[in-house]
């Protein structure tokens, strides 16, 4: 396994690197540590390195690349390694040709890191002066942050909340590697329970966008409750007006009760659960639907994801739609909240995601939800 740890000074790279190395039994290599050793030599290079790191500046790329590649040629690194502090520049990342499995970005705010380093007493480092630390942080934002994007584009970046406790951060990293600690042993991690993510939200909030994300980016099967009614109306060739929708909703609920859409979708959900550990349900509305799903699948954990957006934003979005563009307004909203008894599902949501801003930001938040569901 080839891993990289990235983060501002004080993020916990060395702390986690040492821990992981013991747990996974793969060697740990810190370029910072290498340079601190070189800095002790009474040579020209030693003096140069000492001055550079004590000022909080970076060692030139050629030197770093040369040293790292020399180290990694040693037989002990054959089966893998954990790198701390490298690659630190875009050039280092691009010229480093080894195939990495995962890059963990330990995300910690500057303030927290400064505070940690001020109290770091497990190592005595000459570059732990306030000026040098500030310089290292500044360089990270300017020069190392593009490296994060580089690995994000390659699809191997994992962002970990580094503000949590050392154990929590460690647990999260291990989970991303498909491992967990049991007793004192590290073993393969197995998902224990199947899960459903039920996406709820008012019209125009972004339920379909969220669903599409889970389907396309995460490969999760989708069972759509909204489509049940839409299809019935399309089949009859009727227009999508609030009146028509209301009639169909009422009719199907007369027949099967307030949990109707869950009742008629039961087989589809069961099938999807056979094929995947996590299934997405789009357009769940009533609390009774939720209860119905829970009753039908007692061993499955159901997570309600509530997607919220400003009312004006939602109306604007709906009006732009060609299909069903007339289904808009407070009357429709209230029909859903009260008439369809959506209120309780919103109030009991496990996750709330705000979708007022860019699509990318929305996706990032959904990724976070996916991860929490996946690892719980
Ligand atoms: P390097 O040694 O990599 O230093 P750094 O990036 O500044 O990071 P630190 O080692 O200070 O922090 P850390 O993230 O390891 O945090 P730690 O685990 O200790 O590099 C030093 C210098 O070498 C560079 O400035 C540069 O000159 C040169 N260099 C290195 N690589 C280079 C490259 N590739 N190219 C060019 N130049 C290079 O944790 C900090 C403290 O917080 C500890 O006390 C710890 O106990 C505590 N802590 C850790 N995790 C937690 C937690 N979750 N909660 C509470 N406390 C925590
Ligand atoms: Mg370190």
Q: Could you give a short description of this structure?
A:
The chain has 376 residues and is α/β, with parallel strands linked by helices. It is built from 18 helices and twelve strands.
Characterize the structure shown.
- By secondary structure, the protein is an alpha/beta fold.
- The protein folds into 2 domains: 2-188, P-loop containing nucleotide triphosphate hydrolases (Rossmann fold, 3-Layer(aba) Sandwich); 195-375, 3-Layer(aba) Sandwich (Rossmann fold), CATH 3.40.50.300.
- The protein has 18 helices and 12 strands.
- The chain has helices at residues 13-24, 31-38, 44-54, 61-72, 90-95, 110-118, 130-153, 166-176, 207-218, 226-235, 242-256, 260-264, 266-275, 287-296, 311-320, 330-339, 343-347, 359-375, and strands at 2-6, 28-30, 81-84, 102-107, 157-161, 179-182, 185-188, 195-200, 222-224, 278-282, 301-308, 351-354.
- Strands 2-3-1-4-5 form a 5-stranded parallel β-sheet, sandwiched between helices. A 5-stranded parallel β-sheet has the order 9-10-8-11-12, with helices on both faces.
- Helix 10 packs across helix 11.
- The longest helix is centred in the middle third of the chain and has 24 residues, at 130-153.
- The protein starts with a strand and ends with a helix.
- It binds BIS(adenosine)-5'-pentaphosphate and magnesium ion.
- Residues 7, 9-15, 30-32, 35, 52-53, 56-59, 64, 85-86, 88, 92, 116-117, 120, 122, 127, 136, 165-166, 169 line the site of BIS(adenosine)-5'-pentaphosphate.
């Amino acid at each position: 396994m080839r891993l990289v740890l990235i983060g501002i000074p004080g993020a916990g790279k060395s702390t986690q690197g040492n821990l992981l190395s013991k747990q996974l039994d793969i060697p740990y290599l810190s370029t910072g540590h290498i340079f601190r050793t070189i800095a002790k030599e009474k040579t020209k290079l030693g003096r140069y390195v000492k001055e550079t790191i004590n000022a909080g500046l970076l060692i030139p790329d050629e030197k770093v690349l040369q040293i790292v590649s020399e180290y990694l040629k040693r037989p002990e690194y054959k089966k893998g390694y954990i790198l701390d502090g490298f690659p630190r520049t875009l050039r280092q990342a691009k010229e480093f040709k080894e195939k990495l499995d995962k890059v963990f970005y330990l995300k910690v705010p500057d303030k927290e890191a400064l505070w940690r380093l001020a109290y770091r007493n497990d190592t005595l480092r000459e570059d732990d002066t306030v000026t040098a630390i500030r310089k290292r942080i500044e360089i990270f934002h300017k020069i190392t942050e593009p490296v994060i994007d580089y690995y994000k584009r390659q699809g191997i970046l994992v962002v970990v909340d580094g503000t949590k406790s050392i154990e929590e951060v460690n647990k999260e990293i291990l989970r991303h590697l498909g491992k967990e600690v049991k007793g004192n042993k590290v073993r393969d991690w197995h998902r224990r329970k199947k899960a459903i993510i039920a996406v709820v939200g008012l019209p125009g909030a972004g339920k379909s966008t969220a669903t599409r994300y889970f389907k396309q980016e995460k490969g999760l099967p989708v069972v759509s409750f909204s489509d049940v009614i839409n299809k019935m109306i399309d089949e009859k060739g009727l227009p999508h007006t609030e009146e028509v929708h209301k009639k169909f909703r009422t009719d199907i609920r007369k027949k099967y009760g307030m949990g109707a859409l869950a009742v008629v979708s039961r087989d589809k959900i069961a099938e999807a659960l056979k094929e995947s550990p996590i299934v997405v349900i789009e357009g769940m509305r009533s609390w009774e639907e939720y209860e119905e799903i829970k009753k039908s699948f007692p061993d499955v954990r159901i997570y309600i994801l509530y997607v919220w957006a400003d009312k004006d934003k939602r109306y604007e979005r709906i009006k732009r739609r060609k299909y069903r563009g007339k289904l808009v307004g407070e009357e429709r909203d209230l029909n859903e909240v009260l008439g369809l008894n959506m209120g309780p599902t919103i109030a009991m949501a496990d996750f709330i995601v705000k979708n007022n801003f860019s699509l990318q930001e929305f996706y990032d938040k959904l990724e976070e939800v996916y991860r929490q569901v996946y690892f719980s």
